[in-house]
């Protein structure tokens, strides 16, 4: 279905995010007929460039990231693009931008800040000063939103001085992933799970977001962030919220976000002793990946003194009735053995077995929601081994691979999220109080780490992280699932 006409202004239009994600996503939406005839995309960045030059670069970027380009569709898409040199934190180009937008103040106007957060405040102030924050305007920002609670509040205040909260779209691209949305479908469109979705029936939850790549070309940013700020504070806590929240009244943005906020507020705060006991920081050393030998983080960074973590594992608890004493084991890291993200819900053992010992052990049910690489849902159940040999039990997966079930292209998260911005649907975007509540839980952990001054534990590239992360869960008589 077509969205309403819009002007999309992209700051940072010559950056990695624009080339790698935004342009390919917009091309796909255009190809599928979702962009109206007169939708315009205004690309802005600091350097001087003509429309034709920018279109040539954009074409290159789309070709690089999309297979099976349809040439007429690509040409039509490129026609929508125009380029303006605008200095995000200076005065140059702003009059031109105002002039370019002036002819149709009534259409939806979206500003996408695909730039470093250092520029968010300056850009918002200029948007306000030049009278560009029309009633139909909205602004889209990317994480990291701050580096702690205080800086997040300052950033939110600077943006809030120009835009109303219902105009602000804080992207967490994990919320745009198909399987993440499926988590809500699974929980709330099936009768099967919800009655069991609590401490009485669930033993624990694991959330793993493992990457095989290292920091690639982003070491400069990454070294100031680390795995906690880059992944856990946002993506992983958002996943945790969707697993743990109460059923919202509806899919309305505030109903969903109110419930997520309650989960964040119920996270048990960690004191320094808990931080020592229940968190592990790691940093990759040289090792091997699928492509061969790879250097360690410190060599890549060329700074032997960096204590930034490229891996974090921790045990979180949600202090409410539904989740009392159900640990949520969270972990994420770079240069791990595989690229795999999944949520594992481990159910409790059956209360009593009627089977003889020869039947073999009975494994507890496990629900695995896999986000990537191959998206799907799998339920581990016990069955009888076929054949006349008596009652022998075996664990088998009830498997639902989305790629096999639906033979359609899996859209990128940005496609969904960009169209939601135009539609004005904030359900899959983070509200200000959510971001601040997530920092309120993360800040004491970061502070305790800074206080402890313990260097991150080294792990060999291509493994599952430091052995301390394995000990973290095995101490509780449990184990990470890597076999699925
Ligand atoms: C980004 C992080 O938000 O997410 C990156 O900044 C990370 O460090 C990326 O690599 C992972 O996203 P995805 O969609 O590839 O899992």
Automatic annotation (TrEMBL):
List of residues binding substrate: 173, 177, 211, 230, 334
Domain Glucose-6-phosphate dehydrogenase C-terminal: start-end pairs: 184-480
Gene3D superfamilies the UniProt entry points to: Dihydrodipicolinate Reductase, domain 2, NAD(P)-binding Rossmann-like Domain
Membrane as UniProt keyword: no
Summary of the function given for this chain in its UniProt record: Catalyzes the oxidation of glucose 6-phosphate to 6-phosphogluconolactone.
Family of this protein: Belongs to the glucose-6-phosphate dehydrogenase family.
Name this protein carries in UniProt: Glucose-6-phosphate 1-dehydrogenase
Organism: Stappia taiwanensis
């Amino acid at each position: 279905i077509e969205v309403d006409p819009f002007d999309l202004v992209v700051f940072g239009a010559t950056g990695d995010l624009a080339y790698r994600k935004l342009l390919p996503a917009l091309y796909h939406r255009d190809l599928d007929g979702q962009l109206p005839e007169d939708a315009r995309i205004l690309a802005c960045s600091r350097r001087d460039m003509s429309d034709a030059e920018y279109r040539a670069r954009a074409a290159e970027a789309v070709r690089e990231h999309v297979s099976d380009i349809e040439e007429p569709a690509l040409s039509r898409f490129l026609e929508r693009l125009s380029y303006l040199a605008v200095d995000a934190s200076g005065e140059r180009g702003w009059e031109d931008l105002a002039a370019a937008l002036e002819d149709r103040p009534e259409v939806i106007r979206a500003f996408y800040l695909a730039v470093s957060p250092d520029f968010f405040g300056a850009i918002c102030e200029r948007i306000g000063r030049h009278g560009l924050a029309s009633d139909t305007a909205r602004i889209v920002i990317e994480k990291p939103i701050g580096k702690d609670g205080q800086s997040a509040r300052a950033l939110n205040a600077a943006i809030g001085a120009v835009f109303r909260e219902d105009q602000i779209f804080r992207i967490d691209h994990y919320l745009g992933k198909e399987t993440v949305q499926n988590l809500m479908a699974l929980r709330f469109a099936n009768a099967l799970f919800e009655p069991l979705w609590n401490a009485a029936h669930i033993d624990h939850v694991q959330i793993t977001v493992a990457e095989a790549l290292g920091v690639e070309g982003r070491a400069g940013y990454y070294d100031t962030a680390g795995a906690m700020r880059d992944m856990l504070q946002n993506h992983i806590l958002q996943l945790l919220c969707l697993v743990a929240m109460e059923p919202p009244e509806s899919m309305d943005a505030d109903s969903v976000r109110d419930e997520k906020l309650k989960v964040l507020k119920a996270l048990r705060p960690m004191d320094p002793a808990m931080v020592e006991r229940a968190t592990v920081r790691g940093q990759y050393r040289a090792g091997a990946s699928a492509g061969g030998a790879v250097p360690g983080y410190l060599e890549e960074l060329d700074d032997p003194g960096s204590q930034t973590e490229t891996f974090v594992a921790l045990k979180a608890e949600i202090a409410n009735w539904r989740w009392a004493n159900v640990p949520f084991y969270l972990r994420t890291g770079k240069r791990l053995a595989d690229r795999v993200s999944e949520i594992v819900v481990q159910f409790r053992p059956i209360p009593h077995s009627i089977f003889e010992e020869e039947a073999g052990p009975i494994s507890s049910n496990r629900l695995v929601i896999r986000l990537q690489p191959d998206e799907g849902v799998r339920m581990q159940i016990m069955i009888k081994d076929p054949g006349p040999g008596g009652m022998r039990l075996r664990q088998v997966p009830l498997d639902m691979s989305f790629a096999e079930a639906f033979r359609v292209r899996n859209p990128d998260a940005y496609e969904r999220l960009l169209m939601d911005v135009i539609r004005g649907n904030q359900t899959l975007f983070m509200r200000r109080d959510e971001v601040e509540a997530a920092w309120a839980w993360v800040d004491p952990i970061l502070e305790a780490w800074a206080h402890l001054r313990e260097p991150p534990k080294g792990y060999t590239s291509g493994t599952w992280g430091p052995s301390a992360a394995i000990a973290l869960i095995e101490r509780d008589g449990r184990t990470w699932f890597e076999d699925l």
